Amino acid sequence: MSGITSIHLVENALLVSIHDDVTDTEIIDLQDTLSHRISEENVRGVVLDISALEIVDTFVGRVIAQLAGISRLLDAETYVVGMRPAVAVTLVELGMYLPETKTALSLTHALSQLRRA
Amino acid sequence: MSGITSIHLVENALLVSIHDDVTDTEIIDLQDTLSHRISEENVRGVVLDISALEIVDTFVGRVIAQLAGISRLLDAETYVVGMRPAVAVTLVELGMYLPETKTALSLTHALSQLRRA
């Protein structure tokens, strides 16, 4: 899986950091690992940290949407944290509204929302 | 940005007034400015005042939808205020149900809903 992505358990959520040079094969590995860990560790949420991403394209947008879709099907909510303004603008211009995800300002905010959920 | 749009901070929300002669380039500026201000000023909501709009078309509908989409991705709720009945009818006829937005009768109503959120 190299240095591109890391998955850490924080409280009842899995924190996934997505690096900006993520590739197709790494994403397939990540989907696989993440889905198993959601299922085995019985987590309530997945927090995708995308603060490393300065720009996005349809590939990265699709990656986020797919990870959120997988998480929802496994009964975990997805929070995206660290989104830059330019990334939000680009995603919407690409028509990628990420309906499956919630956004939180930081990991702390995401965890506090998950505690209340 | 000229006289078409203005952004004001009111309590914990950004009030955006959309004028009826908004153009493509102005909207791109607005998206950019708004997304940065949401992120920097850590606001909870965006209130889009569209009372100046007497008619809408798919362009304006898409503008509203995109502003709401960007706001949601940056963790701010969007309220649309001042919508005329004819505008609501047209938007629905165009198939633009604006699922990302909430509607409030006035700025006061929107702010009180944001306070409770």
TrEMBL record, chains A, B:
- Which SUPFAM superfamilies does UniProt cross-reference here? SpoIIaa-like
Every copy of the STAS domain together lies at 3-114
Q: Which domain of life is it from?
A: Bacteria
- What Gene3D superfamilies does this protein's entry cite? STAS domain
Which InterPro entries would you find in this protein's record? Answer: Bact_StressResp_Reg, STAS_dom, STAS_dom_sf
UniProt name for this protein:
Stressosome protein rsbS-like protein
